[in-house]
């Protein structure tokens, strides 16, 4: 399955999943390593982990209401920093779970933790720092992003 199909799956799935409220923003998927995910060593390419994290973030955006708020205001999500530690490789067709959780935010950024696991074993884990950006204006403070979501929900 190409990434566009995974993205469509995430967006459709998010329509049927519980909405995220009250600061508890986490997304979890069960996936498999597909032939287009692997590198020359026949395990998941290190860049693919970062792309899979993007899918989790889109799920969080959609289920929290932030995706709708961003579209309405022409905002875009931006990742400022991402780190990943690879502990064990995920081979071709391996089943795994990936969980992304927003751990906290400050005046500018949202901070997230990403965990890839196979059974009880952690295969890779990382962190990222991202923001919402308004073209021509700059970074949207998380508190303002939350206010936009609340405004849209009250309509």
UniProtKB/TrEMBL annotation:
Organism the protein comes from: Sideroxyarcus emersonii
Stored CDD domains: 4HBT (cd00586)
Domain of life: Bacteria
Name of the protein in question: Thioesterase
Gene3D superfamilies linked to this entry: Hotdog Thioesterase (3.10.129.10)
